[in-house]
Specification:
Order of helices and strands: HHHH
Number of strands: 0
Helix content: 55-70%
Radius of gyration: 39 Å
Largest sheet: none
Shape: elongated
Strand content: under 5%
Distance between the termini: 78 Å
Number of helices: 4
Amino acid sequence: MARNRQRAKQRQAQRREARLAERSEQLASGAPPEDTGRSDTVVESPPPAPDFEPDEEFVEPEEEAEAADELEPVAARERPERGRPRERAKVLAFLANVWAELQRVQWPDRTALTSLTGIVLGFVLIAGGYLGLLDALFSKIIKAIL
């Protein structure tokens, strides 16, 4: 086992050396290294600003929408429905997911069902008897004090 670890470390060191040699060859050939995320060059002057001449006065999109709303009569505006198709689609998707989940459930057979029901009823009877006994005991104590 120790030999396997040692061999794995040797193979890892060989791969590391091969990668370093490959990178040094790329740098020597002038190609940038592949795994770098930044450039080491510095731009001496910023790029020139774009030249454009505005044809019209710039209007903010919000102002444009407000101006259009003022011009249109209220009845002419289109009003979408209140999202009922979207809600219906969400409900149908939910029901489809519920059905898919119910199909994945491993339902018990009749013997497992009867035995598990018996176990549950047994624990309910034991817990009920215990709580009934404590209730009777504490009620006698409370009556004796009062």
